[in-house]
């Protein structure tokens, strides 16, 4: 799933490629991906793209005051094309193409989604906050207002595990499964540590891990072509997706806890005092 660094890079990529160009037309291939109908998607035709921004994991194209807001979900992606065929694509079958945006110079981009679980969401709105997921976002961890004191206020009194709290978009915007694993590894903190148990020092360490991990990932992704961002994310991860491999910090084996629809990875030596976590939901340290 694209998270804050990848979406930030996509916004930068689109600022270079689409700002100043008019939208020739938009082809919707997967009606289920289109979540709004007023204004209609056809209203974008003939308007000029004036900006590209990010809200958490949402991508936002400003098109002369209308906003094309995109959430790529678990398996969605944006694919740039220097030349797009003028002939409309037929929907249906196993075609992963959900939406195609044609620009006035013949270039454009496709929104695709692999797999059977469809979560890609596209909105055409007058204000980004008209998208419920955008309106309910927590603070952006790369914003100057996200200070250690702000994080202390977030975790104060929260009885949830810190891994889940970091992934909650209403609490902190933009961090998903992958970067929450990375942040907690940098912070040397168990994913099952209860948020309210964090000391002032813990909060400071966690805040530093959040900001540095995300900023480093953003810098690595800056300027890359859209098709290269997935590969950059994968190579830059230290523990997420690396179960069974050696921790790059201590050499211990990276372990995994699996859930119904996701999994987390961590290093026992770095994060849990050398004790592996039981591989079950709401796990506790093995005795």
UniProtKB/TrEMBL annotation:
Q: Which CDD domains match?
A: BaFpgNei_N_1
Q: Which cofactor does it need?
A: Zn(2+)
Q: Give the classification, highest ranks.
A: Bacteria, Bacillati, Actinomycetota, Actinomycetes, Streptosporangiales
Q: Which reaction does it catalyse?
A: Hydrolysis of DNA containing ring-opened 7-methylguanine residues, releasing 2,6-diamino-4-hydroxy-5-(N-methyl)formamidopyrimidine
Q: Origin organism of this chain?
A: Actinomadura coerulea
Q: Please give the coiled-coil regions recorded for this protein.
A: none
* SMART domains in UniProt: Fapy_DNA_glyco, H2TH
* Family, similarity comment: Belongs to the FPG family.
Q: What keywords sit in the KW lines?
A: DNA damage, DNA repair, DNA-binding, Glycosidase, Hydrolase, Lyase, Metal-binding, Multifunctional enzyme, Zinc, Zinc-finger
Q: Which Pfam families match?
A: Fapy_DNA_glyco (PF01149), H2TH (PF06831), zf-FPG_IleRS (PF06827)
- What superkingdom heads the lineage? Bacteria
Which Enzyme Commission number(s) are listed? 3.2.2.23, 4.2.99.18
Q: Where is the Formamidopyrimidine-DNA glycosylase catalytic domain?
A: 2-93
The keyword Nucleotide-binding is assigned to this record: no
The FPG-type domain covers 238-272
Name this protein carries in UniProt: Formamidopyrimidine-DNA glycosylase
Q: Which SUPFAM superfamilies match?
A: Glucocorticoid receptor-like (DNA-binding domain), N-terminal domain of MutM-like DNA repair proteins, S13-like H2TH domain
Molecular-function GO term, any one:
damaged DNA binding
GO terms, biological process = base-excision repair
